Amino acid sequence: MHGISLDRYDLAILSALQKNSSLTNSELGERVSLSSSQCSRRKARLEAEGIIKGYSARLDASSLGFGLRAITRVNLKAHGESMDDDFVTLLAKHAMVREAYS
What we know:
Layout: H1 8-19, H2 25-32, H3 36-48, H4 81-92
Helix pairs in contact: 1-2, 2-3
């Protein structure tokens, strides 16, 4: 975990936000047994440390007219962190690509 220490509350916050990233701090606090101000501080720290990279909405692809969903695996001839990142950046520029990981 790159030297970042997470306790059970941090892990509970991350789990809850993965399920519903639009939770208010009050709702989050109810789920993880912390006050809303404690949740706010912890979320801010998790964001500042880069553990939470952002929030997004999950869209219904078929409602938007996207009838095909494809999951592909790509093997590059050469590997390296910068090459992987460059490839993901290239994919992300295409409007039809919704997610890309390395």
